[in-house]
Amino acid sequence: MGGLDRGDDDWEQFARRDPYWAVLTDERFRTAKLSAARRAEFFAAGEKHMAAVFAWCEEMRPAPWSPRRALDFGCGVGRLLPALARRCAAVVGADVSEAMLAEAATNRRRMAMSNVELVRSDDELRDIQGGFDLIHSVIVFQHIAPVRGEAIFARLCGLLAEDGVAVLHFTTGSRRGVMASQLSDLRDRVRPVNAVANLLAGRAPGNPPMRMYEYSAPRLEQLAADCGCDVVARRDFAVPGHNGILLCVARN
Predict the structure, then answer these.
(1) What Cα–Cα distance (Å) separates residue 59 from each residue in 56, 120, 233, 248, 251?
(2) Is 0.85 topped by the overall pTM?
(3) Spatial contact of 223 and 154, defined as CB atoms under 8 Å apart
(4) Please, which residues bridge with residue 246 across strands?
(5) What is the distance between the alpha carbons of residues 169 and 244, in angstroms, rounded to a whole number?
(6) Contact assessment for residue 127 and residue 119, using Cβ atoms and an 8 Å cutoff
């Protein structure tokens, strides 16, 4: 994001080699295995997730909730865009990767999502115009270093409409053992170690490691307050090897 750093460059490589797997790290969605039926499973998972998000938001609203304009930050190939497009009048999908956005554009055409706009994101969110009733992001911030992710989180809060809500996912702790964590750190810092780990897993030696970062929930709540917002609800949302939370943020 912003000017591409090493992590963004790695993400572009994931997007070019295995875009669906990079969004949802399940072996079923590897490029070599991506049949029409598997693609349908991929988008069905997105529909299931967004149905749960909308149901959660509706529980917390005193009146019927029908967001007109939504942002999916870190949209990838567009897994969640069809579900949002069916529920909102206008949807923006934003991603740092040009390759991800190109595939999202293909899916937009394939599914005739005429109310979806795709934009390249950076740390400053310069190409994203605010006034969103719903801002959503899931399994995205976990791949952004907190020093950058916290600033982006604050900017996303600033893009909320007056009655808007943001539902954002963050990893908060590791469930990996000490040895697994040490190996992950070595792969990140030492290219030969990463190459050997890739070869042992049957992958190309140059594949970059997928970095995972952890956030402080109290720190995020303070940042929201500093932006004139409140964390009105939170839910556990774990991913393989890590604990995590979904935060529901609203303007106060």
Answers:
(1) 5, 33, 11, 12, 17
(2) yes
(3) yes
(4) 169, 235
(5) 7
(6) yes
